[in-house]
């Protein structure tokens, strides 16, 4: 199979041009066609010599994301289920905010992390996506937004999969997204969310970027976290917190802790108190996420008043906390639900 052209950073494209006897500015022209003009094939790249276009076509493929389904919510959220070349399916979501359009991308087909409240992990991990397959989700969304003159203004890596278990592809994707000669997405408008893969948190701290880091914490202590997230047995709570403290000290950047509230499991006032004590003196922010009901699990939603009480306890203890605005509730926008339904229909 030919490699995907979206897998390559600008520097790698320039290097390819050099190795193939072309001036390196051809690499910049190609990058411009891919991300500024958003060409859908090499034949459209009219300022490249015909022989070069043919050579590119022989050696590289475009990622084709086949739209299996698309759901549009009343609130403007659009959720895609895309088919890949090998018949796997992935989800991508466009969220409309008053400050712009945000894309939630997927980094793996399925996930092996096993968070008990998540539909993405039900069938396990199938495979990693390549950088180009992650890039293609944003380019495809941008092509759709081009029709109305809108642009992708922020990216969250919070779709299916654990980005830090597909680290190199995720970093190549990020380098392509932030390049000023391409889509030029502001680094501070990008968030990578991890379940707490400790060695990768240390690695990411050394990357010298302004990209935001979010950690899915979901519990205030080791025992409860292990019940909700089996990954906690690999990377225990205290090791994750230590890596977070290192990251903050090294980068001077605030961390966001994602906390999915599950009725009567981790949403009691004592959990909020304990969490506030753990996060005391850390430069951080807590994002409270009321869980969506996953039919395969018997979790129930936290009552509205209890969500506000959880937030109040954190804030009283000087921990900045927000409640995530729910989007696309009417179209199964939670991670993995659409794909899970699709897989189920395939096996019937
Ligand atoms: S929440 Fe994220 S890391 Fe956890 S199982 Fe789902 S996709 Fe994987």
From TrEMBL:
What domain of life?
Answer: Bacteria
Q: Where in the cell is it found?
A: Cytoplasm
InterPro entries, sorted: Aldolase_TIM (IPR013785), Elp3/MiaA/NifB-like_rSAM (IPR006638), Methyltransferase_A (IPR040072), RlmN_N (IPR048641), RNA_MTrfase_RlmN (IPR027492), rRNA_lsu_MTrfase_RlmN/Cfr (IPR004383), rSAM (IPR007197), rSAM_sf (IPR058240)
The record's EC number reads 2.1.1.192
Q: Which Gene3D superfamilies match?
A: 1.10.150.530, Aldolase class I
Q: What class of enzyme is it?
A: transferase
Query: What's this protein's name?
Result: Probable dual-specificity RNA methyltransferase RlmN
Q: Which organism is it from?
A: Paenibacillus abyssi
Give the taxonomic lineage as stored in the record: Bacteria, Bacillati, Bacillota, Bacilli, Bacillales
């Amino acid at each position: 199979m030919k490699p995907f052209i979206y897998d390559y950073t600008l520097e790698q494209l320039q290097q390819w041009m050099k190795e193939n006897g072309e001036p390196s500015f051809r690499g910049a022209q190609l990058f411009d066609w891919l991300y500024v003009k958003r060409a859908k094939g090499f034949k459209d790249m009219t300022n490249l010599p015909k022989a070069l276009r043919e050579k590119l076509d022989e050696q590289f493929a475009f990622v084709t994301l086949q739209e299996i389904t698309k759901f549009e919510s009343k609130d403007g959220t659009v959720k895609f289920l895309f088919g890949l070349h090998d018949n796997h399916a992935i989800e991508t979501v466009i969220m409309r905010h008053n400050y712009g359009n945000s894309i939630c991308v997927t980094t793996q087909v399925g996930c092996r992390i096993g968070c008990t409240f998540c539909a993405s992990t039900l069938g396990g991990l199938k495979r990693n996506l390549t950088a180009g397959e992650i890039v293609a989700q944003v380019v495809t969304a941008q092509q759709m937004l081009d029709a109305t003159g809108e642009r992708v203004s922020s990216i969250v890596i919070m779709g299916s999969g654990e980005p830090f278990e597909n680290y190199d592809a995720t970093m190549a994707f990020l380098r392509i997204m932030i390049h000023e000669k391409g889509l030029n997405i502001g680094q501070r408008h990008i968030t990578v969310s991890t379940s707490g893969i400790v060695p990768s948190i240390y690695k990411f701290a050394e990357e010298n970027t302004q990209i935001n880091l979010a950690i899915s914490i979901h519990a205030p202590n080791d025992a409860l976290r292990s019940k909700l997230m089996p990954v906690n047995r690999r990377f225990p709570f205290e090791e994750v917190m230590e890596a977070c403290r290192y990251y903050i000290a090294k980068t001077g950047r605030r961390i966001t802790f994602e906390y999915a509230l599950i009725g009567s499991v981790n949403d009691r006032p004592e959990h909020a108190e304990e969490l506030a004590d753990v996060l005391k003196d850390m430069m951080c922010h807590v994002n409270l996420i009321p869980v969506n009901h996953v039919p395969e699990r018997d979790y129930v939603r936290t009552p509205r008043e209890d969500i506000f009480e959880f937030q109040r306890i954190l804030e009283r203890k000087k921990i900045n906390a927000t409640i995530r605005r729910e989007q696309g509730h009417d179209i199964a926008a939670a991670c993995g639900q659409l794909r899970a339904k699709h897989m189920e229909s395939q096996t019937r």
